[in-house]
Structures are given as structure tokens and as C-alpha cells.
Amino acid sequence: MSRPISKAARTLWRIVVCICLAVLYSTAATAGTATLSWQKPTTNADGTPLTDLAGYKVYYGTSSGVYGNPIDVGIVTTYQVQDLTDGTRYYFTVTAYNAANVESDRASEVSKTLPASQYALSVAKSGTGSGSVTSSPAGITCGSTCSSTFSTGSVITLTATPDASSNFTGWSGACSGTGTCSVTMDMARSVTATFALKTFTITATAGTNGSLSPLGATAVNYGASKTFTITPGAGYHVADVLVDGSSVGAITSYSFTNVTV
Predict the structure, then answer these.
(1) Residue 1 lies in a domain
(2) pLDDT in tens, 142-194
(3) Are residues 91 and 126 in the same domain?
(4) Which one, of 133, 191, 132, lies nearest residue 165 by Cα?
């Protein structure tokens, strides 16, 4: 009379290998895929050689230890789970089963967050000056539109253009320097462009026997005005006033208006 084979003797033991998880992604929403791979078990629970391996089942879900119905993937050691939601973290495990459809314990759980199909790029402007930032490919015109979403992995080039009144002084955040800014969209990114208002220096000097106010070097912002007062000393009068080497007459006040050069 033959002895019945116990369930323990028939059960496949744990798959004593790490399930190596690689993640692919697509730019289409909810089209993420996860590729699982594992090694073939070789022994039963009792240590005897495994000769009747029939296949594997893949379990996954969005909470650790909580899975939906398994996927019977057959006798393979790599499987791609499809139609996952981009930007979501998934948890995976695998079991093996034998010819009697007896299933093993689950392998150690692994998890992975699928990259989002698109990430946001935000641009801010700072400083005393003004200007605009545009992107290539199109999407940002800041000015008016300072944030946009771009496909994961795409490279976005930002160009800063100062207004006539300003100079562009550099990037901060995801870029640096004063040239064009190239951003790889592997996560949400932010960039700041700094513009400085142009300033000009007016240098005033006075001869003996009189004074001029303000005297010396005076900074004047783009588009601003500045008035200088000429005061002769006691017993003297203003003989002449020169502006950029040209005479403007014997005046006691002179104004630079709307300074742009």
C-alpha cells in the first residue's frame, strides 16, 4: 500500500532569491509597466530536488502585503506587468507552483514607484530688473505663462531675454550661469531667472571758487533723471558748464532726464 504524499512534501519552498525589479515607463497616462525577474527554485520544502515545477504567479498591489488576484505567468522567470498608473508606488511578489498546483510561499516583497509620464517645470523671475523667459519646445513664455508640463526624459531649453532697461545676471535652481538653461525632466523642476536694472554713472567735478552738488560719481537707474546744482563761490559767477565735453552755458542747474545710455 502506497503512502500518501503530504502537502508539506509537495510544497515548493520559498524562492530563495531576490526578485530584481526594473521599471519602464511610457509617456502616455496610466501606461506604466514594471518588469520583474527572478531565479528558478531547485528544491522542494523537504530539500528534495524540484522536478515538477509548473509555473509562477505574480502578485501586486498599491499597499504593502495587499495584493489583487495573482497572474499566472507560466514557466518563465521574467514578466512585465502592464497598464500600471504612472507616478504610483506598487508592491510585487512571486510564488511558484508545482504540477499538483501546490503553491509556494511568497518571495520577499519588492516595491517601485513608477515615474510620472509628465513633470512640471516652473520658472520664477527675481531681481530689480525685468525680462522674459521662453522654452524650447514651447510651453513657457514667462511673462504670461511661467509653468508647464513636459514629457518625462525630455530636455527643455530655457532662454532669458532682458528688457532694454535690464541685464540678465544668471540662473538659480535647476540651472546656473548666464547662458541658455537646459533642464532634463526626470522630476519636477524649478528655475529662477534674475534680472538687474541697468545703472549708469554720472561723474561731476567743479573748478575752484565754486561747488557742484552732488559731486563725484552718482549712480542713476535706467530711465531715471538727476539734477545737478552749480553754486559759485562768494564774489564769483558761473562761467560755463560742460556736459560730456560740450558747453551748455553759464547755468546754475542741469538735469539729466530719462537716462538710457
Answers:
(1) no
(2) 999 999 999 888 999 999 999 999 999 999 999 999 999 999 998 899 999 99
(3) no
(4) 132
